Amino acid sequence: MYKKVGIIFEDATNTHTAAYYSLVAAMANQAELIIMAKTLKNGSQTCLRYKNRIEKFISECEERNINIKTVHYEQLTLNNIEHFVKNEDIDIVFLPLDFDTIKNNRKLQIVINKIKKLTDVKFAIVKAVHMVKIHHSKVVLVLDKKISSIKDWGDFIFSLNELFLNKLTLMYLTKEKEDELPETLSKLVHLLEKNKIYIEKLILKGISGKKINLEAALRNFDLIVMGISKRSPIKTIFFGNLMLDVLKESPCNVIVFKT
Amino acid sequence: MIIHKLKKEEVFEHLHSSQDGLSETEAQKRLKEYGENIIKEVAKENKILKFLKHFTHIFAILLWVAAILCFYSEYKHPGEGLLNLGIAIVIVIIINGIFSYIQETKAEKALEELKKLLPYKVKVMRDGKINEISVNQVVPGDLIILEEGDKVPADSRVIEAKNFFVNNAPLTGESEPQKRTDEPYMGEYLESQNIVFAGTLVVGGKGKALVFATGMSTEFGKIAHITTGIKGKTSKLQMEIKDITKFVGIFASVTGIIFFVSGHIIGRSFWENFLFAIGIIIANVPEGLLPTVTLSLAMSVQRMAKKKALVKSLSSVETLGAVTVICTDKTGTLTQNKMRAREIFTYNSKDEEMLYLIAKYCNNAYIDSDNNIHGDPTEKALYEFSMNKTKEEGKRISEIPFDSVKKRMSVIYEIDNKKFVFTKGAFETILPICKYIREDNKIIPLNEEIISNLKTHYEHLTMIGLRVLTFAYKDFRENENIEDELIFAGFIGLEDPPHPEVPEAIKKCKKAGIRIIMITGDAENTAKAIAKQVGINTDKTLNSLDVQHMSDNELKDFLKKDDIVFYRMTPSDKLRVVTLLKDLDEIVAVTGDGVNDAPALKKADCGIAMGISGTDVAKEVADIILLDDNFATIVSAIEEGRAVFENIRNFITYIFSSNIPEIIPYIVYVLTNIPLPLTIMQILAIDLGTDILPALSLGTEKPAKEIMEKPPRSEQEKLLDLKTLLRAYCFLGPFEAVAGFFGYFYIMTNGFETPQLSTNSTVYMQATSAFFVAIVITQVANVFVCRNSQKSIFALGFTTNRMILLAIIVELLLSIFIIYTHMGNKFFQTHPLPLNVWLYLIPFAFLLIIADEIRKYISHRIFK
């Protein structure tokens, strides 16, 4: 269970989408939501707009009875976030990615590597494709055998379901000719079904980001939820990286969990 | 997505925008956040890999191996001339590769040029001012201004609409203009009336819309995702050429090894055998084949471009020739996509004038200062039809706009101080609000008999494929319901006529054994009527629902039938039909213009996009683009494609024939110990010099008259079949070898005293030159006999393909250069020959023609 969920609130429209997902996570865990806001020069137009956006988000959270705390920072980067997170005792941080980072292979790889190195901080990396509030009627969860923190996933999915009354699709990609889910995933399915969440199982043979994106486009998915890739940089050079491929090319929003 | 359910104010709030649009700074920031508004092109092959491919196919690999062996041999035994040979082989590989690459990229460049013609600007409101910016700079939150004729740049929510109509055909296949409003819509997002999608067209009115999705996040982008996900196809020609190169490669390597070993057994030195093995490999590899195939296809591409079919990938030319089924859409391909009024019906002849009046004034089309009419296609057709038939001038007081649910529109018009209500719309919605009709100058109530009469006339007009609109009117009175108690005025039947060439083209297809399947989003009657007009049988029809209820096997059984008309079909139904046809081993050509057609176009063996009405995505994934959107062009292209197959087979026969006189000297050299009758450099001079132009000229052979009277070639029929191979290797080739040896021994017996001659002796060089000339002379005859494997050369005529005559002249000039110039002698180890040697060799050419004529005669008699 998360007690404190953080959101890095940038002066960018895609932050709003990431913030919305942090709200979902806070709801699922009945956690406090920590808004990590930049300190801007008072009086500037940017500052006014930024403040306005934060205020709107706060009122949205309040409507849903979520405890909020806003903390301001001068400069927050992946280099100093660990200290910040520890200070505030945040369990998971929602981090919006902008297109510039996603587009640039090197930049994206650096961000992901930094996140991986921060072993004590849990992240939810958000790629927002649509800036309008989305009614998630179709959410797909990309799972693998080695999935960890089933409880975390379950709780988050449960709250997504609560919030959007959606239909969830569980996508399991396998190398082998399996048509059964492995035990770890069966447990997750069981957990979700116990909570009366409608799940469609989609077992795809062959593992590739292209395949996930294609399915997302074909089936009109609104959100892809997946775990961070554990593939080493050398393996990535030879075999590619499923998570990076999804992040780069997805036709819908993506959340990548690093738990 | 909930944007369509929001109120205007909420939309601005959600997108953090305003009536003044975004500020320039904010727009630039969002551009960084969401990226440019571009649809990424379907993943193209890496240019470097594409280039390298031309240097790594089996022929090239064999030649690389031969070159490396030459260099190694030179290193071990310097001064034996192998360095020059190695360099020559490398030059051959490089020229071959570069040439093939240039030809392959030519067609792609032509397409890129075509794309540059497309408009790329859009009007947006930024900082409260209207700016014109590049489409790729549009970001979420931008307030765009759209007018008739504009292409919607991104998925946007309508904020303001004035008679705003869009054509969603590029996305949904539905060609009827759709009205757009700014009101919230509680239905399905994709059917929402307040959303305009990227790639669609504004066909009427104007409006403002707030962008909420750009680039690959749009619905248009999603289709691009799906399209990239569908695996591209390898054409039959590509596979066959691959098979041929594999066959020749293995054959060359195996014979090289066998003769290396046998040379060793009979006691020749290692390096002699080494040289011999290289010779055998080079003699076997038809070096000129791949560039000739590429060039021949490229020439066909140019001929097709003249016929208004732009071919994007060279091998599609031949694929088109093998097509067994064409899945064609209706609007724009079979028809002209130009709506015009064809029939009118009035109950009373005096109503005609009133009908014209309503058609003209209950209409939002307008004429500009250059006399161009603007509006949606139906309204334009009505305006065009009625504008000169009525002189009355009036003033519009108000309008009840067209509503897709009510399917009608009404206007109140004032003419000569008198106010009228004019209404037009679908028959089923106008008739219930009509109460009267004019009969002999009197207005009488409509009765059952008259209504039945009207229904009969209406059905008649729809049965002949017309889109029928019903017109009504009444005097306007204040405080009276406007659309009620109207007087029936008449019908106007509109048509989208077929291209005049289409019926003949369909007839040709049927004769050529090609089945036609019409797949359209239009209604049954319209589809059937057009099908009948162009000569497609309408006994077998199905609609989208029927298709969806059928299992794959049921649908496959249905698809085996001739002439099928599918109506009210969606693009996904189309994709399913194409997939199942391919499962049935049909070679399928598919036409399409919309974004949604892209998956089917890519799935087809030959995707054909419309050049005029087609969207960028459709053009991008298609193999062929019809520059005139005309079905008849497809048929001409098929004819060309079939000819290409025959021509490639003919020049393969031609090229392979000369392999035998190139290989046999090496075998004889090993077995009999005579001096080598033909050097490797001379083999290269034939394969890449004298043979190239005649082979190419065979590629320019025009389609034979009977080519479209034969069924498509079967799946089993190969480019290089046993018959072709036997003809080249066991019939024509040996003839040439005999001629070669005759020339060789003629010189040897007249000039030499000892069989052990040095390679620099004049007699030896003359003897090999005579062998070379013999091959050239017999290849001159061979080019004529290879023009057609069945038809007599005398029936074809010696001068009907002038390219052949030109090629022969060049071939002979090149031979003269090789034999009679110092440079030619030095490089190819030749020596000038006396004229009588040529004269002694010419009869072999005639003998070859006579022998093949006898073969053709016998085979004609047997297979008749």
Give the SSE layout.
The complex is a heterodimer of chains A (259) and B (864).
Chain A: E1 4-9, H1 13-29, E2 32-38, H2 45-63, E3 68-73, H3 81-88, E4 92-97, H4 99-103, H5 105-117, E5 122-127, E6 138-143, H6 150-164, E7 167-174, H7 183-194, E8 199-205, H8 209-218, E9 223-227, H9 233-239, H10 242-249, E10 253-258
Parallel strand pairs in A: 1-2, 1-4, 2-3, 4-5, 6-7, 6-9, 7-8, 9-10
Antiparallel strand pairs in A: 5-10
Chain B: H1 8-14, H2 24-34, H3 47-53, H4 58-76, H5 82-116, E1 121-126, E2 129-134, E3 143-147, E4 155-167, H6 169-172, E5 178-179, E6 195-196, E7 201-213, H7 219-229, H8 236-265, H9 270-284, H10 289-306, E8 309-311, H11 316-321, E9 325-328, E10 340-345, H12 351-361, E11 366-367, E12 373-374, H13 377-386, E13 394-403, E14 408-415, E15 418-425, H14 427-430, E16 434-439, E17 442-445, H15 448-463, E18 467-475, E19 486-495, H16 502-511, E20 515-519, H17 524-534, E21 541-543, H18 544-549, H19 552-559, E22 564-567, H20 571-583, E23 588-592, H21 598-603, E24 606-610, H22 616-621, E25 624-626, H23 631-657, H24 659-672, H25 680-690, H26 692-699, H27 722-751, H28 762-785, H29 793-796, H30 802-820, H31 822-828, H32 835-863
Parallel strand pairs in B: 9-20, 9-23, 16-19, 20-22, 21-22, 23-24, 24-25
Antiparallel strand pairs in B: 1-2, 1-3, 3-7, 4-5, 4-6, 4-7, 8-25, 10-19, 11-12, 13-14, 14-15, 15-18, 16-17, 18-19
Helix pairs in contact in B: 4-5, 4-9, 5-10, 5-25, 8-9, 9-24, 10-23, 10-26, 12-13, 16-23, 19-20, 23-26, 23-27, 24-27, 25-28, 26-30, 27-28, 27-32, 28-30, 28-32, 30-31
